[in-house]
Amino acid sequence: MGGPIVTIASLKGGSGKTTLACCLAVQWKLQGSNPLLIDADPQRSVIRLAEREQALGGIDLLEKADKALWKTTQQAAANHGITIIDTPGFDSEITVSALAIADLVLIPVKASPLDVDRMMDTVRTLMDGVKGWAPTFRCVLTQTIRGSVISRHVRNELQESGFPLLGSDMPNRVAYAEAGLYGATPSLTAPDGSAARDIASIAGEVEALLATKSRLSA
């Protein structure tokens, strides 16, 4: 039996979905968790990134962008400590399939009103896509600017509306783009830097959520 499955989903392009998926996968590989990263996006952003020099640190990759994703994921996840699925940035049968198989769904949200509105569409897809299933999900603020009015406002708005949020966010840092030039993440190129610490913090929260869910379902 394999480890948990984490689906990264957003119906808004540019939310940081692929960046979050890659960063978490690399972080967990560095921690020795034997992750599998599945690129279920027809744009193949993960695969293209992995074709660059550092190849995302050599993590195990699988490309599967069709509605049979859930079945393939079940089989492949059996040999890995944790599986991360990067989904398309639009509503599709692929997205629904990835949501159906997930132990935890992460929804990246940029700190802007338009992105919050689109995030709500993602949540509706999450709730309506699989009947009789109560998903565990968390929103993750991305591309934030520490101390800015808009970042504080969006976080407060989501909390007041009852949307569950991770306490950690993914601030807007040039380290992500710089690492991407080499097919890497900040955890590989600058392991002692601020971006690497942000990623480790998000990964730690996710691990705690998965551990709690595992205990409750045992």
Please explain how this structure is put together:
The chain has about 220 residues and is an alpha/beta fold. The chain has one domain (about 5-210): Rossmann fold (3-Layer(aba) Sandwich). The protein is about 45% helix and about 15% strand. A seven-stranded parallel sheet has the order 3-2-4-1-5-6-7, with helices on both faces. The longest helix is centred in the last third of the chain and has 24 residues, at about 195-215. The model has no long low-confidence stretch (mean pLDDT about 90).
List the helices and strands and how they pair.
Layout: E1 5-8, H1 17-30, E2 35-39, H2 45-50, E3 60-63, H3 69-77, E4 82-86, H4 93-100, E5 104-110, H5 113-129, E6 137-144, H6 149-160, E7 170-171, H7 174-180, H8 186-189, H9 194-217
Shape: globular
Amount of beta strand: 15-25%
CATH evolutionary superfamily:
P-loop containing nucleotide triphosphate hydrolases
Share of helix, binned: 40-55%
Protein name: ParA family protein
InterPro entries: CobQ/CobB/MinD/ParA_Nub-bd_dom, DNA_Partitioning_ATPase, P-loop_NTPase
Pfam families: CbiA
Domain CobQ/CobB/MinD/ParA nucleotide binding: 6-184
Task: Jot down its keywords.
alpha/beta; 218 residues; 9 helices; globular; Rossmann fold; P-loop_NTPase; seven-stranded parallel β-sheet
Quick recap of the structure?
By secondary structure, this protein is of the alpha/beta class. It has 9 helices and 7 strands.
